[in-house]
Amino acid sequence: MSDNTLDDLPLDDDARRFIAAHPHAAIVTVGADGRPKVVKIEVALLDGRLTSAGHADKVRSRRLRTDPRCTLYFADDGHRWLTLEADATLLDGPGTPEQLLRYFRIRDAKPTGPLDYHSDRSHHIGLDDDAFRQVMIDEHAVLYSFAVTKSYGNA
């Protein structure tokens, strides 16, 4: 895994604030046919790393395992935008459910208490930590950790 953290990236303070204010991004991966494939994700900083969550069996997970190169595109409601070229590492080891719990607590700005979880597979309200970790295991959830190699935009 790369040692890049957001502090190591070629991003100024304005870009960091932009990501924090606009955590929804489009991720572009490379399909088997060579065409770009785009889906929406939500990012947060976990231990200083730009991170997102997904499922092991998602097409984007398979693509990133084959070719970790990707591009993240952030935009506001006006004309400001930021593009990050990155290499993704999928985290799916024994410690991943705990990391996912921490990621969602950071992403949702909820450091303690019950968590809600919504995916295309299930919806849960008011999960305690143990129940949340079990849902992550049951859904084969993974983390995507992004090592940014280049940034550009007008944010």
Walk me through what this model shows.
This protein is an alpha+beta fold. It has a single domain (6-153), classed as Pnp Oxidase, Chain A (Roll), CATH 2.30.110. The chain is 25% helix and 41% strand. The chain contains four helices and nine strands. It has helices at residues 13-21, 59-66, 96-107, 129-138, and strands at residues 24-30, 36-42, 44-46, 49-55, 69-75, 81-91, 115-118, 123-127, 141-153. Strands 2-1-5-6-9-4-3 form a seven-stranded antiparallel β-sheet, sandwiched between helices. The chain has a two-stranded antiparallel sheet with strand order 7-8. The longest helix has 12 residues, at 96-107.
- Poorly predicted regions: none
Cα-atom radius of gyration: 15 Å
The total tally of domains equals 1
Going by helix content, strand content and strand pairing, the class is: alpha+beta
* 3D shape: globular
Question: Proportion of β residues?
Answer: 35-45%
Count of individual beta strands: 9
Arrangement of strands in the largest sheet: 2-1-5-6-9-4-3
List the helices and strands and how they pair.
Elements: H1 13-21, E1 24-30, E2 36-42, E3 44-46, E4 49-55, H2 59-66, E5 69-75, E6 81-91, H3 96-107, E7 115-118, E8 123-127, H4 129-138, E9 141-153
Antiparallel strand pairs: 1-2, 1-5, 3-4, 4-9, 5-6, 6-9, 7-8
Helix pairs in contact: 3-4
